[in-house]
Amino acid sequence: MGNKVKYNLKNVHAAKLTETVSSSGETTFSYESPKAIPGAVSISLDAEGESTPFYADGIVYFRSVTNNGYSGDLEIALIPEWFRTEILQEKLDGKGVLVESTNIGESVKFALLFEFDGDVNSIRHVMYNCTASRPSIESETKEDTIEPGTEKLSLTADPRSDGLVKSRTGDTTDAATYANWYKSVYIPSETTGSGAKG
Asked: Fewest CB atoms within 10 Å of the CB: 73, 120, 166, 167?
């Protein structure tokens, strides 16, 4: 019996992605060990892609569907300093102050790992090729009740160049794979697409 509902985002982690292209033109993907992003509030992701019908004989004869990944928002209590420096490319100066500058290179890519509490088991997810934009600065004046502020990251989860988008645990995922989900980024034993196994 599988899950019927999803709620309670938790165990959000990020693992920095490095892509290396060999002299023969083959791309390999490597991930650092996942690091926890505490204080997860919510995640909202919409599928990107389109469905294009081809009409023949007066009917939809063929329909092509593209998978362009996902985009949306991750809301957390406070973005950890390591994420700001390693992923958002802010710099720590000599006095330990985080400095944001326009002098940054290409967006740092990372895998995003997370799970929902479910009614049977907690589904664990990994999205393999994410980028994040700078969060907006928001705060409120303290009134009669104190409501903690949050920070929101705009996320894009594109397909890797070998076509890999995401994985998630299922009803029959083996116990060791499930238990070790946040220790290293899970790579499928076989991936579909033009590239080599990651």
From this structure: 120
Distance, CA of 63 to CA of 94 (rounded, Å): 57
Say whether pTM exceeds 0.70: yes
pLDDT in tens, 90-125: 777 776 676 666 666 667 899 999 998 765 678 899
> Which residue carries 């705060």 as its tokens?
139
Token pair of 193 as six digits: 């697409």
Sign of CA dihedral 98, 101, 103, 104: positive
